[in-house]
Amino acid sequence: MKYSFKNDYSEGAHPRILDALTKHNLTQQSGYGLDEYSLQAAKFIMEKFDAPNAAVHLVSGGTQANLTVISAFLRPHESVVAAHIGHIFTNESGAIEATGHKIHSVQTIDGKLRPADIQNVMNEHQNIPHQLKQRLVYISNSTETGTIYSKQELQELYEFCKSKNLILFMDGARLGHALTAETNDVTFAEVAKFTDAFYLGGTKNGALIGEAIIINNPALQDEFEFHLKQKGALLAKGRLLGIQFQELMRNNLYFELADHANRQAMKIKAAFSEIGCDFLSETFTNQIFPVLNAKQIELLSENFDFYIWKKINNEKSAIRLITSWATTDETVAGFINEIKKLK
Amino acid sequence: MKYSFKNDYSEGAHPRILDALTKHNLTQQSGYGLDEYSLQAAKFIMEKFDAPNAAVHLVSGGTQANLTVISAFLRPHESVVAAHIGHIFTNESGAIEATGHKIHSVQTIDGKLRPADIQNVMNEHQNIPHQLKQRLVYISNSTETGTIYSKQELQELYEFCKSKNLILFMDGARLGHALTAETNDVTFAEVAKFTDAFYLGGTKNGALIGEAIIINNPALQDEFEFHLKQKGALLAKGRLLGIQFQELMRNNLYFELADHANRQAMKIKAAFSEIGCDFLSETFTNQIFPVLNAKQIELLSENFDFYIWKKINNEKSAIRLITSWATTDETVAGFINEIKKLK
Amino acid sequence: MKYSFKNDYSEGAHPRILDALTKHNLTQQSGYGLDEYSLQAAKFIMEKFDAPNAAVHLVSGGTQANLTVISAFLRPHESVVAAHIGHIFTNESGAIEATGHKIHSVQTIDGKLRPADIQNVMNEHQNIPHQLKQRLVYISNSTETGTIYSKQELQELYEFCKSKNLILFMDGARLGHALTAETNDVTFAEVAKFTDAFYLGGTKNGALIGEAIIINNPALQDEFEFHLKQKGALLAKGRLLGIQFQELMRNNLYFELADHANRQAMKIKAAFSEIGCDFLSETFTNQIFPVLNAKQIELLSENFDFYIWKKINNEKSAIRLITSWATTDETVAGFINEIKKLK
Amino acid sequence: MKYSFKNDYSEGAHPRILDALTKHNLTQQSGYGLDEYSLQAAKFIMEKFDAPNAAVHLVSGGTQANLTVISAFLRPHESVVAAHIGHIFTNESGAIEATGHKIHSVQTIDGKLRPADIQNVMNEHQNIPHQLKQRLVYISNSTETGTIYSKQELQELYEFCKSKNLILFMDGARLGHALTAETNDVTFAEVAKFTDAFYLGGTKNGALIGEAIIINNPALQDEFEFHLKQKGALLAKGRLLGIQFQELMRNNLYFELADHANRQAMKIKAAFSEIGCDFLSETFTNQIFPVLNAKQIELLSENFDFYIWKKINNEKSAIRLITSWATTDETVAGFINEIKKLK
């Protein structure tokens, strides 16, 4: 069977997670997120992000995290601003709109929102009350094209949001990959400092499932559990999420896994560069988008699976390659061998 | 630490599930429910319930199953009829109403809905269009008080629903316990035959998490995946659910576990009966509700945890005891010893 | 054609309203509630209710008022408490639930909610976050059975609500009738003082259409216009509502019309009393519910239309009679003649 | 006071409407749209549009019409396609999203949607079920920039929609102006033939308020009254709407009024053309968008009110002028005098 670079959720969980599940299996625990593992996981996360007053909630998926957070934070007349390629705008089957809120989309060069983008949306919505009040800014880090926010970009965005009474919410389905990228200059503490809330994705970084929602802004923490329950996000066996995040955060495993995924991607990227290949976007995380001709794509497809992402011209298309915590050195070496043949 | 009879989701998963997760851990699979385990689990379920044309979808929790199913099946002006103690009416924090639908509640003796109950609701809602159109009947089996539907009851309810153009949906969070109760006379095939849709609960019967939604009525199957995605119920790593249900359905494990839980409860029930104890309701599943005086409750509480469920009078209250697949013979024997002392 | 006592919205508008519409017809005005008539109407209302800091919004109907107010005031996990016969619970086709909020209903003797009723609902919803947070109490004055709140009842209810962080909202579709009832002891100022918001109904008291929403609690006034627009309640030609309420509030016309309707009902009530008739409820507003036998109902039906409201026993039923601003002395005299024949 | 060309809802109603309201004022009628005027108005409309099997419903405003129709027609996972300047996308404060549905917007040259626009949206939403199912196409005629659909354009759009299982819904807030434009070639019958539903606006064409929803497609007519009630759109005194539309449709008054408005606009347009003025868009309805320099705008503003619509460059802006049934020849002559001075 071909090895798949289609995504970072093709395998199960890191073995330490399975071990921990087995170890704690028969210990009785309280339900609904009050188990001791979930509480410990929350502590680890608060320490890591230097956010002692944060509220941490574990849920099973990213769309669930997004829709629960956004609908809990907004009143009915408040809307969301997101990049046009933002996951909530294009890939969640109207999950946010189904809770009653419009998303204003902004075309961006690299998937990242900047203050001017948001200001433009606000400028176009001055005809009150016929037009909506923008209230929440949604960003992804890393973005859907693999790019990351610099410290300056994040800080400027956050300060802009505060000056406009906007909530800044970061989708961190691949936050580990962003924070361990070689070009990253955002510290863990700054993620918490420069957002009102964010989530830390487990599904795409070594967990069976699970995302940890971190609400930094105390004004937004109140009564969040009701929303979790109402949206079907409160697991009776929260222990499953607790055990996983406890292991992922213990001894930095989560970030080691993300770093591993990034390094594998960078090795592949280098191989494509060596043969003179262009990329759709310049990324330093676990997603890369080399531009290849049809013949090259065909050759690579013989032994590997991946998505053809975007047609560039009649000859060439960008493909998407995603590495993960589970991508081995052997696999990468084998793939690089194939790349070398493309020249 | 005290042993807890508070619920049936205090432990992890049956060891065969953990083994299977470990065994398949590094096999790459498609995401979003298209992994081979989910497909195999669906086959097993369809075979078991003799429902070759059913659509099977695996989700992570019961509230999620309920809200996704109900909102997918109804148009905005259609409402739900449920028992007053129905889980969706009292214990899901308005999850159904949050999708826009009213639930009409009916007081029942034993948690079970009967045709006359539904007819009464319909009779009271004749002032069209000022009053809503009832369209879906929600029942739980076993019910929230541990009772079960007989074949005749289920069939009559289903036939009534068909005659009134009502959808019959069964919450099967504890369906295994219902179907393996010693008084049960409903076959697996009849569950599928006499409902439009139901779900089979894993969380309360040996899985880490997971509920299997089975849609029998072909008219209701269409485009259900969109609703799963929109409600945050479509897991990227659907394999986690697939592997679990594959194991649970293989060689009948699921029903063996439920049967085990029922038997443990029946032993405890017998012990209470022997000391002359009354029960809040006559149950044959894994929930029992003995009525005790304050002194008896205090004594039992010394070494065991449980909920005081309902005050009966100034002297007595019913407690709730729930057994599970993980309740051992030793635990039960120890508890029975304590019961004997209460006389 | 038979005269109808079925409701108080069978005719058009008081002639002074039609005159004013004609008089101002060609004067150009701003749209969306910013016309000078709406502003003047708001002033009149604020003066009448001694509520100088209230926010007043005119909308076209009662269901619209209820759903816009309630959905604007609540967060997604907050619910409503109402009497079982409350208009929003039984006669608005799920309008409130369609905005995502559950209504907890309470059985009452006379359609009026009391603190103990609400406390009971709160007591039954302590299992947080599995159960909802009650946040808004909905009452009608006069109620759906024609009864009214005394000053003491209203004050106690309001103080209870404040002590529990509950919003008190009064549906005033027939508030004029309540406040002009001979048994009423609530002043205009007390209506505003002892509610967070209420509305004053025009549709059932002499307007073509229209209800005036008055938000007393400043914390609830913010950005309400967005909600009006979003729910389709903001009329481009708000002038239609403004002119009507300006006329209704000018020189107390609104209350004179309600008083007239009440007086007509009281004359009819006296006639039924004289022949020894019982009533379903003791009312002093424009709704009366005499209990008659089948023969009597048949006789009265020959020349008059009304609803048979409730079967009392095999012989008798209560009928509902509603008078209005347009019910003439001649009509009442004719009807009383018929009543006398029933003895 | 300055005369305002800001919109077509600045005045009250055509005098024949006020006369009819007065004439029928004390006639008792059934409520909720069952009055004889509403029934007659429906008949007139069905005759005019040659749509004997249509269902006609009268509501008070355009946003209300849009949100009630769209939410009634769609299931939760179905979305809407609209022009970027479509009223529902930009000017209804998220009314459609508040009912749970996403609107995909399309940039257009002239405010009109074409099959290719919709096909593009569908092409970009092939990743099922992560992306939504497009189900309803929303168009306005005349559009928000005053342009109109030709017969060929409408027919092609409708046929495309049918081939793709899409519902075609026309917002006719200014449908009268479209159908009486000198360049219009769409017959009344073709409006009904080439849409699944549309509405005919009264508010902007001589009524006090009111829009008539016409549902041509029988598959979409079912149980629509529930939705009207649930969304607060069902007026107790439906007679107000019935009387107005009865008068508007009797003897073609509605279309005479629209034609009058168009003619006044065309006279003004000709005057601007004569002085060599450009227009933002070429319109033949009651909206015109002449492009003027700052000095010209200042001069015109001395005696007339209008919106500055869009900045064209540093020197010039387009203004928006709207005429109505109430715009007199004298006003137009006076305004043309001012235009002549601008040369």
TrEMBL record, chains A, B, C, D:
Domain of life: Bacteria
Similarity comment: Belongs to the threonine aldolase family.
Signal sequence coordinates: none
Record key words, sorted: Aminotransferase, Pyridoxal phosphate, Transferase
Protein name: Aminotransferase class I/II-fold pyridoxal phosphate-dependent enzyme
Domain Aromatic amino acid beta-eliminating lyase/threonine aldolase: 32-292
Cofactor: pyridoxal 5'-phosphate
Native source species: Kaistella yananensis
GO molecular-function terms, A-Z: transaminase activity
Spans through the membrane: none
